[in-house]
Batch of 2 targets.
Target 1
Amino acid sequence: MTSRLERGSGVLFFSVCDLVVFMAIIGFIKSSAVYVEVSGGLLGVLPGFSPVKLVLLVGWVYLCLYFVQRVEFSELVPKKYKPVVNVLTLLTGPAVLFTLTVVDAVKRSSEGEQSAFGIIAGRIRGALGNIRPSSFGRSRDDSKIRLLDSSGRGIKEVLGHGKGGKEDRHVLNLTEEIVSDALEERASDILIDPKSESVHAVRFRIDGVLRNVRDIEGDMGQAVINSIKAVSNMDISERRRPQDGAFTAKMSETTAAFRVASAGVVYGEKLSIRILNQNAGAFKLANVGLSKKQRKTIQSAVNKPSGMILMCSPTGSGKTTSLYAMLNEIDFYTRNVVTVEDPIECVLPNCSQIEVNPRAGITFAKSLRSILRQDPDVICVGEVRDEETAAIALRASQTGHLVFATIHSNTNASALVRLMDLGVSPLLMASGLSTIVSQRLLRRLCSRCKIRAEFSQSQMQEFRRKGINYTTIYETRGCDECDGTGYLGRTGIFDILMLDNVMKGRIANQQLSVDMLKADGDKKGKSNLYKQGLKKVVSGIVSLEELKRVLG
């Protein structure tokens, strides 16, 4: 949102400066060219005027204006000094900004973040990236997004607005713009809901946090909702009952998949759009946030011929991504891997993937029964939702299959409680489960603008007492690269429970009561997650505030 405000301010800034440039050109012509009246009433120009000088002057003025704008929105200059630095930049062009960049790069390099040359090169690449779309004549069609339904028809064809009027085109353009902005901002969800009868709010969930993007008029908001429902094969006329749908979007050479859910609310209809992570298939255990010790533990569990690895965490905590990372450690050529998902977020080559469709009678339980007749080595269950699915998956892990599954719960102990609540036999749990992994996602600090955290004397004493090196803890500042939030991307923290024979015996003999698991197990699980998160805080990867926000 900050970047949009900056872009808007930049347009206004250049509009005002256009007048300054025009006046400068007129002054230049008056000082360098002498006009005389010649026969015929025409005006001629003496050799004192040079078109080359004029072109160079215009180019230099606009270059100076561009760098003034870069300084205005740069975090290198304190706000109180920006007017003076802007004037200097207007006179010297890139010299001031380049000097500030070098000084900041040397300072960061001395703090051990990165080499000064690498920092400067990154800043230059970022600046070129910002001007590339408008400077190098990129074709508009190359960046045009196309929304398609399940059969491949475009949104205009679905709505029959291929030859519609201005209002229809405006609605479709706004719909495509919202989806395009969400992809550009790395959003995981788009929410369109009515704030009142006359206003709809559009919000993006970016790095796990909701941001208000824009407010649109009520009629226009409902028209956008209808457009998305139409391309998602949903009933436009039904606004009260909940509906589900899906659509895809193509932009240049990339394709994104979307899952849509609607519901009737007080002021109309709300739409929730989940953007499926198409890059999940490229993740490995090495880049999801696991420590070396945890990675070895998971790797040993994945290499076993049988057993059940259960991923658990609240919604939106990265369970599916971690599940794909584990599957990517398996050799698909030598092992028959079959998955049951709702929906399929990413296509894995050489892997048989089944998508759940309750309308067609394809459920998790029915799919699992059929999978067991397909000679599988590895089975992946997208989500354990009922007793039947849990029981079939656990029995499969007993009969020589390696089973991956996810379940919604807060901690490892809560996952056991959830299975008990579903009615799964304790003996079946003890014999089938081998590993339980719970995780959370923390927002990464922006490496470009993060600064060392400042603490009070009492806080520093507390850190010393606990043996924590507080000098390597960073906090947010905000810049144009991270949209002023101070965060860019996310990383995971994990708590791994390996069920040994003692633990399995206690589960089978029902020596673990539900109350004990909820009290002691949850407390221990959160403590383990906090320790893993604190390691990332001390490493300067995440902030202390972010750790407290996620774990409390």
Target 2
Amino acid sequence: MRLPFQTQVESKLYTFYALTKAGFVRPERPDTLARLIQILVRWGATPAAAAAASAARYPDETAIEDELGNLNFRDLQRRSNALANALQDRGVVEGDGIAILARNHRYFVEATIACSKIGAKALYLNTSFAAPQAREVLEREKPKATIYDAEFAKLISHATQGRRTKRYVGWVGDDEPITGDERLEDLIETTDPDDVVPPSEEAKFVILTSGTTGTPKGASRSAPKGLDPIGGLFGRVPYRVREKHFIAAPLFHAWGIGQYMIGAALSATIVLQNRFSPEGTLAAIDEHRPSVLVVVPVMLARILDLPQEVRAKYDTSSLRIVFASGSALPGELAERWMNAFGDNLYNLYGSTEVAWATIATPEDLRAAPGTAGKPPKGTVLKIVDKEGEELPQGETGRIFVGSELVFEGYTGGGSKETSAEGLMSTGDMGHIDDDGRLFIDSREDDMIVSGGENVYPGEVEELLAKHPKIADAAVIGVEDKDFGQRLKAFVVTSGGSELAEDEVKDYVKDRLARYKVPREVEFLDELPRNATGKVVKRELQERDA
């Protein structure tokens, strides 16, 4: 999507202002400035450039804090150089794929930077994969090498059986057996850490879609060609250079790795934990004092489920930004978080394919709970009907987005639907209110027609989330012989509360049109969710069938 010339000029000025305000653009010593320009020309806007620039600017300051200790920027640069050289020594060349199956720790980051330095394509695998899913993805993507944590040794052994792929072990836990594959730490310690010759083309990375409706697809991406998208983001979220970013969201997901790359560009200290736990996250905030916390919404819910006396043990006052994405953020959850932890919550709506579409600030979430916010500068958002005609404010239609961050297509072929203007479908239905804020009503394939009326499950889910006795809820469409389709709700009660099916139906009936009332309510102990907290509605459909 190409913006008009005047809009491009305005965008450049806005970007310069936003980057300056964040401290990203600032006066430098002439020799440092020359070095930074050389790095940018050499590496482009890539993780390799971010690592080299931070090492030049802040060599002795901390780059990563994880369960192995602290790593400064100079050591991160040298270690990622050594790993890049070691991979090349073992036959991995520019354009080859490297699969990464790892949790949040330094080896994930070092592998990502090393891929960028040699022009290899990083393929991020979901840590929740079963062996058949991993095997299917690996057979489709055909990586030259696979980097994995020791806990996944058995899974990787099954998934790579009969395939020619070099295998390397990243994180090894205290009680985890060492396999016969080489360890990344050994490669790093025994290889020359000299600078790597840049590849002829910038490396790509492949992020898998959530797979909530089927087999995950590989979405191919490159680094953005300019800084305008970052400027747009900084205009909505008040990032600052050299702060601490605690990334609790999984790095393998578009949300987690995207936020790592933002933090790396800002020379942030990245705080990482292998596994999420609600109290462990609060303890890490208390210990490391981050300014930014990156989460998926279910993490917020689990922290808020802790008893008040447990939450009160930890100091979280360092947090300026709690940034959530990856799945829907119910308005009720946003209000509960801000009432408990202050107005520091930001919500990003987007997808693996379009990156970000809108961002809701704390002010947006207070004024209009449940909103997905407004598009950042440089992002175009339109709501259209089935014929592609733009709809007026308030009317629900298909969401299309355009920016420099739209992905390049699926690795297996094909892409998302685009409009005549080059905007890309997010696959969701939504509407825009009078203040320009977006609301997500449903996935396109979730919308049902019941008795001739269009019904959006998301609207009912948002309402159910506000019920004091409901901790979690999901709504799907099922076949109905009289109405074509009808709604069915799956409900998880709060703390073992007693709740009858008729109470749920009456609650919805008192607040929404009758055709939006679920005809059936099923109570569950928990909803099926993927690693980023999205409800896997495919499993609910299978359960109903």
